[in-house]
Amino acid sequence: MTNYEIMFIVKTTMEEEKIKSTIEAMKKIITDGKGKVVETKEMGERKLAYPIKKELNGFYVVLKVEASKEVIGEFDRKAQLSETILRHLIIKLDEE
Description:
The protein is α+β, with helices and mostly antiparallel strands. The chain has two helices and four strands. A four-stranded antiparallel β-sheet has the order 2-3-1-4, covered by helices on one side.
């Protein structure tokens, strides 16, 4: 298992319940693949530096996870297909 940090931005033009369910769905991808979500940090709604898909604000979420590269690949694929996620970034953390 490798440590990763995943940051993603969710659309804020939806109801709060839909935002929460999107976050839970993304965490479920990790846990379904035998990975572990170590930490979840919801940074809240922020103004974007530039419009993304005509959105001016986004809800930022940072996950610290332990997962295999196959699970991270599946997360990446589903994040790209999701209509509620504006952007995502996956960073492999150094082994300590």
